[in-house]
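Hi support team,

I'm filing this because I wasn't sure whether my run with magnesium ion finished correctly. The job status page said complete, but I'd like someone to confirm that the output block is well-formed before I use it downstream. Pasting the exact inputs I used:
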Amino acid sequence: MSGSGTSVPIRASDVLRKKLAKIGLYSEADLLVHLPLRYEDETQITRVIDAPWGEPVQVEVVVQTSEIQYRPRRQMIVKAADHSGEITLRFFSFYPSHQATLAEGKRVRAFGEVRSGFFGAEMMHPRFHGVDEGDPLPEGLTPVYPTTAGVSSNTLRKLIAAALGEGDLADTLDEALRQRLKLPGLARTLRFLHSPTIGTEVDALHARNHPAWRRVKFDEVLAQQMCLRRAYLARREQGAPVLVAQDDLGARLLDQLPFGLTGAQLRAMAEIAGDLSQPYPMQRLLQGDVGAGKTIVAALAACQAISAGWQAAFMAPTEILAEQHCLKLKDWLEPLGVRVAWLSGSLKTKAKREQLAATAAEAQLVVGTHALIQDGVDFAKLGLAIVDEQHRFGVAQRLALRKKGGNPHQLMMSATPIPRTLAMSYYADLDVTVLDELPPGRTPIKTRLVADNRRDDVVGFAAKHIEEGRQVYWVCPLIEESEALQLQTAEDTYEQLSIDLPALTVGLVHGRLKADEKQATMAAFAAGEIDVLVATTVIEVGVDVPNASLMVIEHAERFGLSQLHQLRGRVGRGAHESTCILIFAGPLSETARLRLKIIFENTDGFEIARQDLKLRGPGEFVGSRQSGVPLLRYADLELDADLVEMAREVAEEVLVNHPEQADRHLKRWLGSREELLKS
Ligand code: ADP
Ligand code: MG
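And here is everything the job wrote out:
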């Protein structure tokens, strides 16, 4: 339905309105911001004989013959001519109305590229319209609109012209702000883009940085920022428990750690501590590369909640990871007298009942998987919800945890580094803390690229590695088409390695194993009882075994960059020199080659993410729906980074000082798409 609220519906037949709705056009206001894809210069006529090949031109010709042929496939072939020569217009798709306009004897203007075809000069699928001799030429450039089947650019042009005449073009940025940002007024901008001033060149209009386009993109990015920011401010209105520590639990945890915190960890801790002592909910994302040490920061936050007399929950996306966290947190906190409960899908009925009872009563910290947010889980007094690897959870799941307690503070964590501009856009509704420093004493990971015909060398290298007392991860590729095939590959690799390395213990872990089998294998690996762990990507997130210092990844070309980075981050956690061997099967596509080059040359997750973004574009990067990217039709987060920064600053200012202006701005630019961002 129309998202544009009270605005005027488009005046057109029902049939046309239905078609327009398909491309998101419901109201006159929607038409106003439906901007051209490109422009064409139809202000001149070129004689057929003068038309340069390969460049768009307009010819005015009279149809000589028009026929439909079926070989090699159905097509309409129109022969036409002007005084200078003949040209063929050729169409593979056409409607009866086209045939009428292009009937014998009709005069038409056709716009397109001329090329040398089977019949001489030829235009393939030109845009055309019927004219009478002597009809005046347009004076300005012709806008070409994005459209849908059965709605011509011409129809859109007429509807938009009407909307421009009577629609609401009131500016939602006031004069002073526009001057500060050096942006033109809205009415001028939209009129200009829909019908450029006479004399404007096509190239000037196609340039990304034309002031009019900058205004449009700014408005659009601003709308996105406002929408997210408004959600943030609304959540802030809700109260949350003031968590002020009543004892020295946190200090005792710090005392007992075998390491001191990094500067980045200390800063993060201070920021979070500040948030927790406010009477409104924290909405903070803790971002840090793999191995940056997010867990301890979260544990300290939990301590603050606990010493304030509240519960903390810690949710992780996989059973293996949740279990690891649980063991580590118990290790840290139980000696200090903290009561820890554990909830996971694989608990047996009786154990589950006990843990649920603890959660509803005396437990101070509850660790688990999605099981934490299921029905029937009641927290006695939830004050802080921690979500690890938050990007692995859907919005709904994150919300569910928020709803579990009255209105707990939330700490989200992510090791998927997101480039700055994307983060500003994606996370405009969160405060972000970045751990930009790795703990000291890590030896850098060496990365090697090896073609799969040298797999034997890799096996030998692994054997040597293990002789020195280290352990090895051996990761089998993700096979998206078939889980069965993926399992098969993992099992084959397991068997082959068991044969190749008879004196060593090889283990296997994959997604199909039962939770307790997975855990038993992981525990054995962590305890050093397994030398080589063959795994599917189940070990991708968060697993921490410092003695493992070799990571072998087979068919590395099939993995995503952030996945490779995460996997590589599983090693290099102890003091030993670590290596990551990427085995690839050739021949590689150009993109695959570039991706491997990026991971080979870079160790910084943010740099990798930045390059990845360039390669893939933001939509694919974080999932277009989540990223808010479908809201951006004109702006590009990478290329228009400066606008994102400006918009971020302005968004809150307008929301707070001119709320009704903000409303109108959102309606204009987002319409129904505003819903996409609500969470
Ligand atoms: P991630 O940010 O990827 O979740 P972890 O919290 O799992 O990282 O930490 C990785 C490893 O580094 C763990 O073994 C952790 O105990 C250790 N660690 C964390 N902080 C420090 C520090 N300041 N000094 C040394 N080791 C640390
Ligand atoms: Mg982690």
